[in-house]
Amino acid sequence: MTSMTTTPSGGPAARTVLSVNLNKVALVRNTRHLGIPSVTRAATLCLQAGANGITVHPRPDERHIRGDDVRDLAVLLQAWPEREFNIEGNPFQNLMDCVHDLLERKLPVHQVTFVPDSEDQFTSDHGWNFPADAERLRPLIAQAHAWGLRVSLFMDADLTAMAAAKAVGADRVELYTEPYATAWGTPQQDAQLARFAQAAQVALAVGLGVNAGHDLNRDNLSAFLQAVPGVAEVSIGHALIADALELGYSATVQDYLRCITQGH
Asked: Which residue among 57, 64, 84, 174 is the active-site one?
């Protein structure tokens, strides 16, 4: 199904795809030494239910996703060639080595999402800062391109930064959506939606693809996609895994796909 939004060239935009972030599955598993719940089993069930891809964010302390998980998921995704593997992280920490290891093993990676989090950061809570981060990001983006990968930069909904993200070589931006999620159901909701819609419009106009993620859920996702044009991908983890504890992976993924359809 295609959406009613358009690309910068005026053609129809493809339907938003769902990438499931499995960090929280690994977090629960790591509280014991039994190997359950299984990250690869969770990925398999999500893919079977229609998820378009898998996202992980391996941090240096391996508090949730570990290096072995990244490799095991890449091996799994060889059997799903039409689905994508998105690896998030700080390219100045362990991300580039993690990705290079997969490529050396000839395992699939499709997108890297550069996130400016510190090693001990609780969760990602801000985007890159331009122009301050531009020159140090440029060679790493070029390296990822040399590996044949799409590069997305985790960004605040800052209209003034989109052209700079494009100039430094990014293919996409992932809009950090927690401010919208926090405003959901409050008088600030419409203003936040307008802010994100404007940021997406500017990103599309300069030739960037638009991803989105952080605290999107079954309540707020459809409204976001209805208001924000051209969203290529949403990456959802915490809320989706929390829902799966009650509904199961299959029913949860299918309901998020329903929300995406409703958003178009």
From this structure: 57
